[in-house]
Amino acid sequence: MKSAVETLNPTRVRLTVEVPFEELKDSLDAAYKKINQQVTVKGFRKGKIPARVIDQRFGRGAVLEEAVNDALPKFYTEAVNEGELNVLGQPEVDITELKDGELLAFTAEVDVRPALEIPDYSGIEVEVDAVTVSDEDIEKSVEQLRERFASTSPVERAAQDGDVLTLDLEAKVDGEVLEDGVAKGVSYTVGSGELLDGIDDAVKGVEAGGTATFTSELKGGSAQGKEAEVKVDVTAVAARELPELDDDFAQLASEFDTLDELKADSAKRLEQMKKYDQATQAQEKVLEELLKLVEVPIPEKLLEDEINTRKHNLVNHQLGQMGLDLAKYLEIQGKTEEEFDAETKEQAEKGIKTQFILDELVNKEKLNVSQEELTEHLMRRAQSSGMSPDQFAQAVVEGGQVPMLVGEVARGKALAVVVEAATVKDSNGEVVELDDEDETAETVVAEAEGTEAAEKTES
């Protein structure tokens, strides 16, 4: 077999392939065998029809077509490997010559990854937020913990903000009670903003045994999006009581003996969280600067497919789970469809550029992924997808997605290498030393490529 590669543009090539006819022998034999199993000829047992009879009765052309269709993928792959091409997507194949007993010639046009030159990235400088934990942060954290240990007690007065009510609800559209518009014994905290728009104003000032009505647009169910008249019966009013902030509370809510120890632990945890956020911010900003350094041509078909995939995931999974369609989502976001399309295209381009550049860095820096690193990444992906590690691992193996996971880890390591070479300072002008760079980098890369959102829809 002979093959040649012609570069059509930075992201597309044409392969020209010539195959001596004798190399089609195995495919011709397979074609005769397949046709033998599909046809019957009087005087011959099924599967025992000679090749010359098949040629006479059904035509040599049918055999050649079957053989060529069987052989083309193998010859195409050999030509790709011989040309050391990194192809993207499916090729457009055109058979240019087929001489029985002599020659098969064909061309294949296919998108390829562009050759990239990665410049020196050690000069990248970014600024991130300084890690500061204020007294207000600590008080807020402790107050959130206190809220979790609140108790309720019935009161004989009108409902007010913060009270926990027991409600019976009935929704009507056009005067008819909806089949799925009745709910009994619903627990609701006044001021939480949950359930339905307008319910807080309706129930405030109502005592147990009282009734209120209001109109609201339904967020789900059979009449989703329609205006409904909602009747709400308040069957009980309970006041929330917060525990005193003292040593007894610390012992109740934690493993600590004193409130001071609990606050010190809260400060420590808040500092760790802010350091993680700082590292993520550094990764994101370094990636943005890296993308500016490299010119990346993008194949049109690849970009189109990526845009369609992102739209499909949003509309059919994320919005579907929330009971929204694209029009309602755009209305909530205050965006036009043109603005949405432009943003989606921009995000898709960023995702493709991120993958191309970091894959090139993986090769340049000769980065490898250990079994331990792959296992840790798999555990994190399983957690974010809502599946158990065993279930996720099985799905990955059965779907042939192990190379994809390896690529994700490798690209995370590549970004971590760039961040390590960059200068990261906080808003106080202090140089920042980052920890767990590989893990935070994997998260940043997943967000840039759009795989984090996708994985959440897979479960």
Question: What would you say this structure looks like, in words?
Answer:
- With 459 residues, the chain is of the alpha+beta class.
- The chain is 50% helix and 21% strand.
- The protein is built from 15 helices and eleven strands.
- The chain has helices spanning 25-38, 51-58, 60-82, 135-148, 199-203, 247-253, 259-293, 300-321, 326-333, 337-364, 371-385, 389-398, 402-421, 437-449, 451-458; strands spanning 2-9, 12-20, 87-99, 103-112, 125-128, 151-154, 164-173, 176-189, 211-217, 227-241, 423-426.
- Helix 4 (135-148) packs across helix 7.
- The chain is extended and about 100 Å long.
Give helix % range: 40-55%
- What is the rounded Rg? 32 Å
The coarse overall form would be extended
Given the structure, what is the number of helices? 15
Q: Major sheet: size, sense and barrel closure?
A: 5 strands, antiparallel
Listing every helix as H and every strand as E from the N terminus to the C terminus, the arrangement reads EEHHHEEEHEEEHEEHHHHHHHHEHH
Q: Termini distance?
A: 46 Å
Flag low-confidence runs. Answer: 453-459
User: How many individual β-strands?
Assistant: 11
